[in-house]
Amino acid sequence: GLCATMLVGRAAFVHSLLAAATITILQPKRPAVALENQGPLGATCVGFGCNDYRGQSFDGMPAADEAPAVAPITNRPIPSAAPGSMPYSDFLQAVKDKRVLGVDLIAPNGDEAYALIVDEGGTGKHCSEYDANAKVVDGACRLRMGTGWPVEVSNSWSSPTWVMRILDNEKIPYEFKVNTKMKPVRKTYPTAAGVN
After folding, report:
1. Mean residue pLDDT across the chain
2. Alpha carbon of 74 to those of 55, 70, 71: distances in Å?
């Protein structure tokens, strides 16, 4: 009775151990993109489904002297920063130094943005060190945001929404600017069997 059960139990255990080892050896290696989704941002579930923050290695808008980037997963082209723009790291330092008076995010998604920066104070640079043509009016200048700016990538961590949260927390005003004079570009599709 008991010995037969033990033998069957041992046989089943050895069989399952060998099967597990075989599956582990034959299992394909995970791609690098799967490995980057580990850690605290690996998968977040907050009542609206889960989101794995893909593209964590994407560092935002490329520098002015770098080639345009390609958004992770979607392969959308992301233009390089404009010459004379303020890097995102300097913008964050200006926020800490209380030098940011406001931010204009250009519609539709805020990839293009301008900040009103106090020209002096804190540990940051003067406006002219970013853009030699920046006009200082009443001690402040308007600078375009550049290298590292979190441009909108719909299936990634990168989004100007994170900037808006920072601005909300610091009580810095911001708004989306919409060019109402721009004519909408409508997509046209080929007709099927002469039907429009």
Report:
1. 77
2. 10, 8, 6
